[in-house]
Specification:
This protein is α+β, with helices and mostly antiparallel strands. The chain is built from 2 helices and 11 strands; from the N terminus they run ααβββββββββββ. This is Carboxypeptidase regulatory-like domain-containing protein.
Length: 160
Amino acid sequence: MTGTETWLEPFDGTDATILRELREVVARLDPCPADLTERISFALTVQALQAEVAELTSQPELVSRGFADDPAEATTVTFSTESVSIMVTVTPEGRDRARLDGWLTCGAASVGLDLDGGGTRTVEADEDGRFVLSDLPRGGARLTVHPPGGRPVITPQFTL
């Protein structure tokens, strides 16, 4: 063996030091996105459910109003897929709570609201597609709609 064939030698402390320094450089220059775990979880959920992902079709600010604004002001957003449209209105209920009124074009369906802080709230939309969730904590949320006889529909994350 010659001095240029060090790759044949067993892993040692020098190799560990080089890899540790390389990891530190990469972490500093190209850090992992803070929301990578959430993105992976969302992608796996969509894949597992074989769900449609709704596109935001109105209000690009994604319900991001602060509650310091006029407390009577509500914000409405619409999400759409080929099979269903979802319109939701977020209304403040005090400083750190919100109410979500929603309408589905598919009529009666099961609706789940996944909250960033953990937990899921579920409700059944009536035959006209209307549903209400109140006393919700502020923060990020995502809807999952289970239309009767259809594939689940998941919205992008929005802010309550």
